[in-house]
Amino acid sequence: MRRIAILGSTGSIGTQSLDVIRRHPESFCAAALAARSSAAALAAQVREFSPAAAALVCPPEGFAGENNCEWSFGEEALLDICAREDVDAVLVAVVGIAGLPAVLRAIECGKTVLLANKEALVTGGALVMEAARRKGVSLLPVDSEHSAIFQCIQGRPNAHPCRIVLTASGGPFRTWSREQIERATVEQALRHPNWSMGRKITIDSASMVNKALEVIEARWLFDMAPEDIEVVVHPQSVVHSGVEFSDGALLCQMGLPDMRVPIAYAMSYPDRMGNVGERLDLTRAGALTFEAPDFARFPALKLAWEVLREGGDAPVRLNGANEVAVDLVLRGELPFFRIADLLAETLSREGARPVREVADVLDADRRARETAHALAQRWTA
Ligand code: NDP
Ligand code: MG
Fold it and tell me: Residue with the nearest Cα to atom 40 of ligand 1?
């Protein structure tokens, strides 16, 4: 029985993780659950899954939990869950840089980390990988592309891939002209063709910033040189990513677009489980197509390689500016197509500073947010 804590249990990844647990009560239990402010949803999950602990970062006024489990509140409560003795693995499925302290605390406490939150690696990649190495902790990817890559390299300890092929659906604006994208509304950006996900990552997919974040995530998870990570647009989302070896063999992992598959793989690793989701019938999958990404229509994508080349805190500032941009777009205060401008402008305002500790990351994040907020005023929707 693997005892799993889910941080972000009320979200898209969180609820799908609970569905995997629901299907496999003999293998997993939800030892602890945490969310930001969705008290009613979290309380309902507590009633169904009976975790020993539940935490809310921002509880609604007057909410004190129910007396069927140990409730706690505030930012520290989320981190305390990572330290619990009755937790074996922590699934980090919160949104944004809030995932970084949680990932670091889980590693520090020697827990296996099931990582959905890519922002933790984008902002703290070197620190997280070093901490995991030092503590001998496994960091198992949940992001579907990284899970695909991870699956493709299993059993090949002596063969480091020479190239990673990261597939991207291309999002709702894949076939739109630049002029059309300039008029895109937030409602159109929220209509992802293949995946149903939280609002932040859905906007990130439309701008292709999600793929930029995933390039950085792959750089750290698989210790790859940025120039050996290639993005290929694959609108059907059936090939989830692949790795190429020195002899030119390209291994890919395929399946229907269903996050429960990578979630279940991370939960049960190194084993595999049945009863996860629908299966792929290749005879009914239709044509699978691949195309090069268009950096002219999706300029934010190329920032991934730029910030990796720049190093230091540049990826942190990219992420911080993007969190501000997405928030403004979702509030209707910034036109969607300005995201790329806001990121590029924020990055250009300062050179990279070194990152030696978490405080450097948090400081760079704070500066980037301030700069992005100030810059956004001129494009306010
Ligand atoms: P959602 O917005 O659907 O859910 C986010 C969850 O995290 C909610 O439970 C939310 O609680 C909680 N949360 C948000 N912010 C905080 C915070 N500051 N502190 C504590 N809890 C918080 O997001 P997704 O499930 O879509 O995404 C989660 C992460 O997984 C992201 O990093 C995303 O990039 C990554 N990911 C998601 C995929 C997907 O298919 N959805 C695919 C691959 C990666 P509340 O409900 O109370 O607000
Ligand atoms: Mg992904």
Answer: 197
